[in-house]
Write a structure and sequence with these properties.
It comes from Pseudomonas kribbensis. Pfam families: NnrS (PF05940). This protein has 384 residues and is an all-alpha fold. Helix content is 76%, strand content 0%. The chain starts with a helix and ends with a helix.
């Protein structure tokens, strides 16, 4: 056990959790696609395939990546050594138990407990170090994690009571909270990455008001989903989405630099963030009756925004924190494009052809398999 705890893969949180999250992203969507096309029958997860798919993408896949990123970033912010070794192994095991519990013949209460353990534990670990270091500017990140855990509890209560409406509220609330978290983190790192990646001089600090409005608007948006307000058309919510979407577009305009289109680690982040802005505007259109299916906005966010940002971010972070040049393999650059095209297929083709869904599944899985093919060795080996 000591030898395992000392292995490079358990030296920082991003290593095992990026591997686990990327592997699960490909496996979970493959299973979902096989079931949708009638090629998966047994075993079935507790609560059924739809409940499993809804829950596992935000609370399994995205939660693992968010955890890996924050467990690596918070030590840099605080100067306090991060979770590693045996403690990190235990945290990864908690995450794995949550994924396996769906498929085990266990009492429902135990399944729910195993599902819910990971996010509260992560929030406590991060809050401990942020409070010890007095990093008050980063307290909102712990708040967002706690709210995501609350949405997961809402989802699991809905599962326990066979209430699909409650499940949906919890999942959508969590998805838009993850978008809020990416808005906060993206607002910090994307302009920094562009500046460093293109050797540009430091830009003057932006006025803090738009950023604060964007954070508040993002949190309010997530709350409207968690409380079920987005179940019916509400013109006043269109105004909230339009305001938040406008602020996101202003960010994209401010960040734009023609040089970034030559750098895959920059355009991949930028375009994925653009999908997130598009999803917000799509929700505004839905509330005005201009978009027929709300699920198109949801999947624009989930596949293009969250999926695209995650793949681009883990590719860059993995290189930077292992001491390697910030030049991803060409196959992984192809993966960046594939996940963005997968979003286009899910949003633009599905309303017209059932083949769009299958194509989206194949492209998504291929993108994350390419990441695993080229990054597994990097994440398992010591820092250069």
């Amino acid at each position: 056990m000591r030898r395992l705890a000392a292995a490079p893969v358990f030296s920082l949180g991003f290593r095992p959790l990026f591997l686990a999250g990327a592997g699960f992203a490909a496996l979970a969507i493959l299973i979902w696609g096989l079931w949708l096309y009638g090629h998966w029958f047994d075993p079935q997860p507790a609560g059924g395939m739809l409940a499993w798919h809804r829950h596992e993408m935000p609370f399994g896949f995205a939660a693992a990546i968010v955890a890996g990123f924050l467990l690596t970033a918070v030590p840099n912010w605080t100067g306090i050594p991060g979770v590693r070794g045996g403690a990190l192994i235990a945290l990864v095991i908690v995450w794995l138990l949550g994924r396996v519990a769906w498929w085990m013949p266990l009492p429902v209460a135990l399944i729910l407990a195993l599902q819910w353990a990971f996010l509260p534990l992560l929030a406590v670990l991060l809050a401990r170090d942020l409070i010890a270091a007095g990093k008050r500017d980063n307290y909102p990140i712990v708040l967002v994690l706690a709210l995501i855990a609350g949405c997961q509890a809402l989802t699991l209560i809905g599962l326990f009571n066979d209430d699909t409406g409650l499940q949906r509220q919890g999942v959508l609330g969590a998805l838009w909270l993850i978008a809020a978290l990416m808005t906060v983190i993206g607002g910090r790192v994307i302009p920094f990455f562009i500046q460093r990646g293109l050797n540009r001089p430091s830009a003057p600090a932006a006025h803090p008001l738009p950023t604060r409005l964007l954070l508040v608007g993002s949190l309010l948006t997530a709350i409207t989903f968690a409380t079920g307000l987005n179940d019916v058309l509400r013109p006043w919510l269109a105004a909230l989405f339009a305001l938040t979407g406008s602020l996101q577009i202003l960010r994209l305009i401010r960040w734009h630099d023609r040089g970034m289109w030559r750098v895959p680690l920059l355009w991949s982040l930028y375009l994925a963030y653009g999908w997130m802005a598009l999803a917000i505007w799509a929700m505004a259109a839905w509330h005005l009756g201009l978009l027929g299916q709300q699920s198109l906005a949801t999947h624009a966010l989930a596949v293009g925004g969250v999926g695209g940002l995650i793949l681009a971010m883990i590719a860059r972070v993995s290189l930077g924190h292992t001491g390697r040049l910030l030049q991803p393999p060409k196959a992984v650059v192809l993966g960046f494009a594939l996940v963005l095209i997968a979003a286009g297929c899910r949003v633009l083709l599905v309303p017209f052809s059932g083949l769009g869904l299958g194509l989206s599944v194949v492209l998504w899985c291929a993108a994350f398999v390419l990441f695993l093919r080229h990054y597994t060795a990097i994440l398992l080996k010591p820092r250069l």
